[in-house]
Amino acid sequence: MIRVAGIQISPVFLNAERTWEKLESYIRDAKSDGAELATWGETLIPGYPFWLSPTGGAKFNNKDQKTAYSTYWREAIQLENSPIIERMKSLADELGIMLVGGIAEKEGSSIYCTLLTINNKGVILGRHRKIKPTYEERLVWADGDGLGLKTYPLKEFYIGGLNCWENWLPLARAALHLQKETLHIAVWPGSLRNTEDITRFIALEGRSWVMSVSGLLRPTDFSHLSESEFPMKASMEANATNWANGGSVIADPIGKLIAGPLVDKEGIIYANIDLELVIKERQNLDISGHYSRFDIFNKPLRDLG
Q1: Comparing 46-50, 134-138, 165-169, 238-242, which segment has the lowest mean pLDDT?
Q2: Among 177, 200, 254, 255, which residue carries the largest CB count within 10 Å?
Q3: HEC-encoded secondary structure of the chain
Q4: Which of 64, 93, 221, 303 is catalytic?
Q5: Which of 40-49, 92-101, 171-180 has the lowest mean pLDDT?
Q6: 286 assigned to active site
Q7: Which pTM was predicted?
Q8: Answer CATH for 2-303 from 2.60.120.200, 3.40.50.720, 3.60.110.10, 2.30.110.20
């Protein structure tokens, strides 16, 4: 049995340092409530690029879009020699808590949507860069790779995770299922319509525990920015509703939602997850074991007849 926490907060948009300070406080709260693993939404640090659709992000050679991208790149995080990453590792070690969450990672002049995993000793176990950014995300995020399609141990559990819509990719899910995944973490920018159905589906498919953890973003979350660094400030503040409403949930291995949904507010959802329930439910369906038929499905489709 382990206790897990899903942290749903808004970023201090396009300010990595202040977002980390806010997130650190929530991680400490989660630990004080007994959590052994804490996770948070897609690219929470320094925020999801919500401005692309409403401000014509595909306009070629547009000075405002270039400015927004340069600010986003400035606040994205390098994995090496990053004070924030070092503090994240130190916090994990200090508290003895595993951290799995989203950052915008930069390398060279490119930005990646990255899911970072740090163990409870403060060691980076891996980073998963989103395989294929979705739709307008491709205007700011580069394609990822398969290096991070791995699971990582926590006690007797194996933890795997995917970013947002790549949770819909059957082969990405299968890659994790086949590595003994028993807790799946899906991180999202923030929308109940994304989390309420697929969370249950992944749980039923894999007979695994599933955490879908989202961000939150409100029109008031742009007030600290200047228009010189983020020219879209006024138009984003004028939105009548929240840009992201959260929707964090946790499902058990029979697809029942046992925590959440948390909507339109910040907070932490918790669950005490039991490996025995995974094993019980895989008695009749284990797609990584007795129900997998590796003798058939490890062949190319063209050879199946």
Answers
A1: 238-242
A2: 177
A3: CEEEEEEECCCCCCCHHHHHHHHHHHHHHHHHCCCCEEEECCCCECCCCCCCCCCCCCCCCCHHHHHHHHHHHHHCECCCCCHHHHHHHHHHHHHCCEEEEEEEEEECCEEEEEEEEECCCCCEEEEEECCCCCHHHHHCCCCCCCCCCCCEEECCEEEEEEEHHHHHCHHHHHHHHCCCCCEEEEEECCCHHHHHHHHHHHHHHHCCEEEEEECCECHHHHCCCCCCCCCCHHHHHCCCCCCECEEEEEECCCCCEEEEEEECCCEEEEEEECHHHHHHHCCCCCCCCCCCCHHHHCCCHHHCC
A4: 221
A5: 171-180
A6: no
A7: 0.95
A8: 3.60.110.10
